[in-house]
Amino acid sequence: MEKPSTPSSHSLASSITNSGPISIFAYCLSSILMTVTNKYVLSGFNFNMNFLLLSIQSIVCIVTIGSLKSLNIITYREFNRDEAKKWLPIVLLLVCMTYTSTWALKYLSIPVYTIFKNLTIILIAYGEVLWFGGKVTTMALSSFLLMVFSSVVAYYGDNAAAKTIDDQYAMYLGYFWMMTNCFSSAAFVLFMRKRIKLTNFKDFDTVYYNNLLSIPVLLVATFALEDWSSANLKKNFPLENGAAVFIAMIISGASTVAISYCSAWCVRVTSSTTYSMVGALNKLPIALSGLIFFDAAVNFWSVSSIFVGFAAGLVYAVAKQKQSKEAAQSLPTTNK
């Protein structure tokens, strides 16, 4: 016979689910976990079946959120074919974004990848100016200049660490994939924002449709475009640590769900402003994780670029906070 839960256990669970610091820590941990596990798979064993990696992550994500929904922990809307047809272009952009990110992360270190990812913010900001009537404040522009400067500094650090022609080739190939990822990421965010306004999707509605519709696209791509020969499968899943690679894929897929859940949790128990600040601050531990867990270049330029990029994200978060306050104050009030 199941024992009834005690008031103390209820109060403990309530204090955890309503704790701002715990939600922030969980969000940061899930972000670091996903980045590190992806880097482990992509760079640790010369993995070259990126579409397969993404399809496994999406399948794990769907299984995880389906389980959470059955336990009444989360909710999301039921599948609708008409909504799926309208959402499919967003999914194609998502596949493009995630695919290019895997190649960028394969060839670049985590610190350099994290720093250059900031450039996406600039593209999104000016895309919002063109499409949604947004504006770029002086402080936001200052943060953009810092982002560009941190990327230049990161390049010098990366170039200094490149000892051979092969190292330089891999570095520039990584930069190519990084640039394509920045543009595809910005397009994905802007188009998704426009579609969300039309469909009124909530957080887990978006997660559900993105991952469910991605699965057939990714499976077709992996079977059509990637090498499924026994020799290549042995290369990607070596006998001595193939299980470790597969487990890392599963953890990475589950961590995408964790990020979505922790994002909503953090916003609920703190505020959207705090969440944006956490997103800026989180870039520092993610970049440092690359120095701790992987053989990333450690020199004056590389370390300086991490802290300049961190400062750029912080300035941008403050600029968005000020912009939100000014927008709220400018709203017309009605007399009762």
UniProtKB/TrEMBL annotation:
InterPro entries: EmrE-like, TPT_transporter. Keywords: Cytoplasmic vesicle, Endoplasmic reticulum, Golgi apparatus, Membrane, Sugar transport, Transmembrane, Transmembrane helix, Transport. It is found in: Golgi apparatus membrane; Cytoplasmic vesicle membrane; Endoplasmic reticulum membrane; Membrane. It is a multi-pass membrane protein. The chain crosses the membrane at residues 21-41, 47-66, 87-104, 110-132, 139-157, 169-191, 207-225, 245-267, 274-294, 300-319. One of its GO terms (cellular component) is Golgi membrane. Signal peptide: none annotated. PANTHER family: SOLUTE CARRIER FAMILY 35. Homooligomer. Belongs to the TPT transporter family. SLC35D subfamily. Involved in the import of GDP-mannose from the cytoplasm into the Golgi lumen. This is GDP-mannose transporter. It comes from Candida oxycetoniae. The lineage of its organism: Eukaryota, Fungi, Dikarya, Ascomycota, Saccharomycotina.
